Backbone:
C-alpha cells in the first residue's frame, strides 16, 4: 500500500500559479512539478489552474484555482511552519512573505525561539518562520 500526503491550497480566481511561482522563488530547493490549466469551454476560466503541484525543500504542495466563490478562505489555524538555521533566510522570508500580507506576531525573540514571526502572505496563506535552536 502506498500513499502520498500533500498540503493542498485552494485559491479563488487566477491566483494559484502566481502564488506557486512566488513560493518557489523563495526557496533554493523548490520547483513546480506539474501544472494543468483550463482550456476554452471548460468549467474554469481559460488559463487558470485545474491542478498544480510544487515542492518546497522536499515538501509537496498542491494548488488549484477555484472558479466558484466560497464562504471561506485560508485560516491562520493552519500554517506552513518553516525552521531555518539561517537568520538571513528568516529575515528574507519574513520580508518577502510579509509584503502585502498581515503580520500576526512580529519578527523578534520569543521564549520558544530566538527569532520568530507568524504572518499571512498577500494570498492569505499563513506562515510561521522560526530560527532553529542549537
Residues:
Amino acid at each position: 500500500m502506498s500513499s502520498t500526503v500533500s498540503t493542498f491550497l485552494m485559491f479563488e480566481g487566477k491566483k494559484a500559479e502566481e502564488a506557486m511561482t512566488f513560493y518557489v522563488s523563495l526557496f533554493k530547493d523548490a520547483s513546480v512539478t506539474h501544472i494543468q490549466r483550463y482550456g476554452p469551454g471548460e468549467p474554469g476560466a481559460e488559463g487558470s489552474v485545474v491542478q498544480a503541484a510544487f515542492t518546497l525543500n522536499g515538501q509537496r504542495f498542491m494548488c488549484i484555482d477555484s472558479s466558484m466563490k466560497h464562504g471561506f478562505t485560508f485560516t491562520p489555524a493552519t500554517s506552513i511552519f518553516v525552521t531555518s538555521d539561517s537568520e538571513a533566510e528568516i529575515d528574507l522570508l519574513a520580508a518577502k512573505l510579509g509584503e502585502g500580507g498581515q503580520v500576526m506576531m512580529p519578527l523578534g525573540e520569543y521564549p520558544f525561539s530566538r527569532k520568530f514571526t507568524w504572518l499571512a502572505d498577500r494570498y492569505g496563506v499563513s506562515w510561521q518562520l522560526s530560527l532553529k535552536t542549537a
In short: The longest strand covers residues 102-110. Strands lie at 7-12, 30-37, 49-56, 59-66, 80-84, 102-110, 113-120, 126-131. The chain has two helices and eight strands.
